[in-house]
Amino acid sequence: MNWTVYQTVLWIHIFLAINWVGGLLFVGWGIFPALRLFELQDTRRVLRAVMKHSHYLFTFSGTAVILTGVILGTWLGPLDSFEAVWHTTYGNLWFAALIIGIVTLLWGTFIGYPHAMRVLSDNHLWDAAERGDRRPLNRSLVVLVLVESVEGFGFVSLLTLMIML
Prior knowledge:
This protein is mostly helical. It has helices at residues 2-34, 40-73, 82-87, 89-121, 123-130, 135-164. 87% of the residues lie in helices and 0% in strands. The longest helix has 34 residues, at 40-73. The protein is elongated. Keywords: Membrane, Transmembrane, Transmembrane helix.
């Protein structure tokens, strides 16, 4: 029974991690570059709609990944005490993954997403770009990519730790 529960929770954990990471990578590496082919206002409207409607799904997936990771490491896993967390290699890696996962989720939820929505809502940037002055918009988009790349570094760190576990 325990093995079946473990495998089920592990499957859910992996599935939701794929949704969280894969979804964000698809927006960043698939949708965002493709929108450069559209007119500016269409780009803005589509990107804002995608971000607005996917944000809650990514936040849910990230939260569920963290919760299932806690369950896999503690209730269904080898970490049965704080001693095991602090004094075993598995515990140290698990705790590092927990902290990185939480920071990555919080960064995306409370820093990355609001920053993206501010850029997409700044009429002055988009109006200036429509009139031919794209530099302020381009600078804002570069800053947005840098802000959002923190999540990418978090995901790479998490994947590295999962391989080590």
